[in-house]
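Now for my pick.
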Amino acid sequence: MTSALPKVSPRRAMAFILRRQGFFSHQLAPLEVVRRLVAVQSQYLASVPVAVWTRRPDTPYPWADQAQYEDKTLTRVWCLRGTVHTLASVDLPLFVARQLEKKDYWFLRYLKSQGVDEAELKRRNQKIMAALKKGPVSRHRLHEMIPELKELTGAGYGIDVRALALAGDVVFAGVEGNHPRFARRDLWLPDLKWQVPAVKAANRELMLRYFGAYGPATLKDFAYWTGMKAAEAKAIYAANQAELADVAVTGWPAGQLVCAADVDELLKTPEDLPPVVIVPKFDNLLLAWRDKARVIDEPGYKHIYRQAAQVDAAVFIDGRIQAGWRVKPGQTLAVSLNAWGKLNKRVQKQVAAKFDAYAQWTGADGARIDYVDGFN
């Protein structure tokens, strides 16, 4: 007779996830927050410091910039789902190990359609590495130095440097005007010990870190978050099955997994949740699971997960997304709040207090909240 799976409520599962990410004790140092999240999606650079602050509110406002451009403990690259993320520099080899294994990148096929074969790509990459030898160079300047890059359709999506970036040879190095700058990894991160792990070890670490931060979750969630195919996720699971444990969450799809070492902590986690949590655009709490029903009800879905793959900043109230937000800077932050359900006065005060704290962190006096009926 098969023993019953450990079973928890959705509320307990969400409380466990939020505790693992630092929302309760705030004991994770800022860099540890980023490492616990594995990587923070950062098409919008402003999202990174907010993602850290909301989990560690005493993080200094300039910390993310200092960590990226002075201490170099953070690095910005393409990785999960083929999108730009900010991660701890020491974790860059982990992603490179996985990326080097993959040979059939969509952008390589795209380059071939534009007449750039493997030999031509190698030649261009050598030119790029030579152009970056004296330090970071903006995309605009790089295209002036290597005119054939300017001819590429889709260069703004990274077609020009992506092959080098995925190999760990090139990283983002800030911006110059409206143009991103790129740098050679060996020059930008000279103190980084460069040792790319074996792909099996990288796969194991990525899986355990995902379920350590976002479990209970399914293999479908893991595949969605990484951007890998379901078959690959299943193969990684099969190789590391002993280190994961099945659990049941009432009302959630079957197949929920957590790290085996975390089961007791999950079962003992109190069901209390933070009354209000605010997260930035593309936050990990918005993108970690394929099944969004665990964090948002159907009426709110279209307000956060928008057209053109946009994911709006969100307000969690008692563990679920109940509003989206946008802000205009100023001495007093002007916050537009789109709540699709009615918020009682107690909740409105809690939301106002949270945005006041956010405003003061940015250096503003406070926040003024305007309730709106949707965003354009």
In short: Residues 32 and 88 are 9 Å apart (CA to CA).
